[in-house]
Amino acid sequence: MARRIQERVRAVTELDCTIGIGENKLQAKLATGYGKPAGIFRLTHGSWFDVLGGQPTDALWGIGRKTAAKLDALGIGTVRELADTDPRALAGRFGPTIGPWLVQTARGLSPAPVEGTPYLARSHGREVTFQRDIADWAEVRGEVVRLARLVADDIAAERRPAVRVVVKVRYVPFITQTHGQALEAPATASAPIEAAALAALDQFNGRRPVRLLGVRAEFTS
Q1: Do the Cβ atoms of 140 and 134 come closer than 8 Å?
Q2: Which of 66, 134, 150, 204 is at a distance of 20 to 30 A from 33, taking alpha carbons?
């Protein structure tokens, strides 16, 4: 099945992909790291400690450098050592939820369900980075209207009305701000999307040269 998925991805995108196989989402996610580049890797309860037991704790998904450093200060340096730790001991150091979760993760356990529900984005947007900085804010307004129309076309095609519009402005040099405007009623039509985008733009106080503009429509769900 994994090979068939790779073939389909390659046929449609002309790109290779790595596939991880596991007995839960945690194992499958970590397995992809061992399958790169463009390979297939299987990680199960039976092979978990053979692969990860001697690795540092930050090899686990969800454990960063700071948490790993705190664990190391407690004498817990590897995945195996973390898995062998009493969850109650870590509950006092990391809290009643995070402490036991760290031990659970080190043991390769994950209760997260696998769902086949298609992903629905919570927003849809367009943005553009300009080859030259825009100092004329009349031109900025025109670009915001253009982007708002593109966004309106996109959400109309998806038949998902927007409830809020957000405008992003990146000033020179690389200072980014955002402002939003709620719609009076959910809409996919261009006119209310444009009006909300311009209302959001009017909330920006600065009139400095602009490097990037973005318009995003947000949905209820």
Answers
A1: yes
A2: 66
Euclidean distance between CA atoms 167 and 126, whole angstroms: 10
Cα–Cα distance for residue pair 209/190, rounded to 1 Å: 27
Contact 19, 38 (CB under 8 A): no
For the record, the structure tokens of 199 come out as: 């209302």
What radius of gyration do the chain's Cα atoms show? 24
Query: Cβ atoms within 10 A of the Cβ of 54, count?
Result: 13
Q: Which residues contact 186 (CB under 8 A, 6 or more apart)?
A: 161, 162, 163, 220
Q: What is the dihedral of CA 188, 190, 195, 199, to 10 degrees?
A: 70
Q: What is the pLDDT of residues 110-165, one digit of tens each?
A: 988 888 888 788 999 999 999 999 999 999 999 999 999 999 999 999 899 999 99
C-alpha span between 81 and 83 (Å, rounded): 5
Give the angle subtended at the CA of 32 by the CAs of 28 and 34, to the nearest 5°. Answer: 115
